[in-house]
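User: quick one, sequence for these tokens?
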């Protein structure tokens, strides 16, 4: 079984003939949930709605707003559309990965899709064995959209499922379903929050975005050789994430390792502080304004305060400066989305760094 699962088809281009699609599929419109939840989806002619009223799914925050099943004796096929409203910006991919884990859906294949400015999305093939012994294969895709009434975003997913034994017969039908759906009244802003611009004249003009819910603090001792900034995500009276930023003029440090050492010195000198950071990794970036990008991840330990936050570090090099960003917050967990919120913020900084139009680096032919 394990070997055969790894060889399942995962089409990413439509292989069904156009005339076949016209003859055997229909366009379903869901409008009973109001403008913010209205969607369309292309379904096989033998797949019809059975439930359209909102139904909570297993107490994991998801609400099913559409269930469709085949109505004849053809191989069983079921389609579900579900959503969750959330006030803060994060990647739709991070949101759905956590939901799939809670639903005990094992991802066996996937492709990542990057929006220009709206973050990461996921197209995943999953496997689940049910208590009655049924082996089920599903394909899941996601989208998100700003909620004009409540603010925040509605995070949506569609899942098309069939028995494992029938999947190869239905793989192209399932791809057609999960690749052809969208919101009827999608807004022009597919994010949970507006973006707040950050500007400062350092050794060069520095500009980037953070989500609106993040607070920015400037250090009064900043200079054009070294500056510090703090970005904080506070929910009520509790802090759920901090990004410490240090900027260095290009001639004041020799490489990324020295940037890391200088930036961490404020805490590595403290008694009882330890860290389990990975080594710095030079990473690729699509941002044409960044010359070099380095990352590191790991845990920080504060023995006196019994505090073990997760740290993600991004170091950016341009022709005139080194820029250190250190995200500190809760570890990835199943109780909340604070890790996903913090991750999205630092990715937004990286993608928009001196690149407020989110332009992509042109790929050179090798």
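Assistant:
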């Amino acid at each position: 079984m394990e070997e055969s699962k790894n060889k399942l088809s995962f089409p990413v281009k439509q292989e069904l003939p156009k005339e076949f699609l016209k003859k055997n599929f229909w366009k379903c419109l869901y409008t009973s949930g109001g403008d913010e939840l209205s969607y369309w989806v292309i379904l096989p002619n033998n797949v019809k709605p059975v439930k359209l009223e909102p139904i909570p799914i297993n107490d994991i925050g998801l609400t099913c707003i559409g269930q469709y099943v085949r109505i004849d004796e053809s191989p069983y096929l079921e389609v579900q559309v579900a959503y969750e409203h959330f006030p803060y910006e994060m990647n739709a991919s991070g949101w759905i990965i956590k939901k799939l884990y809670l639903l005990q859906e094992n991802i066996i294949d996937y492709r990542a899709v990057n929006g220009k400015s709206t973050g990461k999305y996921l197209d995943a093939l999953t496997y689940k064995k049910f208590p009655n012994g049924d082996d089920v294969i599903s394909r899941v895709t996601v989208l998100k959209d700003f909620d004009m009434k409540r603010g925040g975003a509605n995070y949506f997913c569609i899942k098309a499922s069939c028995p494992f034994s029938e999947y190869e017969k239905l793989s192209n039908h399932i791809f057609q379903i999960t690749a052809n759906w969208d919101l009827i009244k999608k807004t022009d802003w597919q994010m949970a929050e507006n973006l707040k611009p950050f500007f400062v004249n350092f050794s060069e003009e520095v500009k980037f975005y953070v989500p609106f819910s993040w607070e920015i603090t400037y250090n009064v001792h900043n200079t054009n050789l070294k500056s510090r900034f703090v970005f904080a995500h506070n929910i009520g009276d509790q802090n759920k994430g901090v990004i410490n930023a240090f900027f260095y003029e290009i001639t004041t440090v020799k490489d990324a390792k020295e940037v890391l050492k200088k930036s961490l010195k404020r805490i590595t000198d403290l008694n009882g502080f330890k860290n389990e950071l990975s080594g710095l990794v030079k990473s690729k970036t699509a941002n044409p304004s960044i010359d070099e990008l380095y990352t590191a991840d790991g845990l920080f330990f504060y023995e006196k305060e019994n505090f073990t936050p997760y740290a993600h570090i991004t170091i950016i090099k341009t022709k005139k400066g080194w820029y250190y960003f250190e995200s500190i917050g809760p570890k990835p967990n199943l109780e909340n989305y604070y890790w996903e919120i913090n991750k999205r913020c630092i990715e937004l900084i990286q993608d928009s760094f001196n690149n407020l139009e989110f332009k992509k680096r042109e790929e050179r032919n090798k």
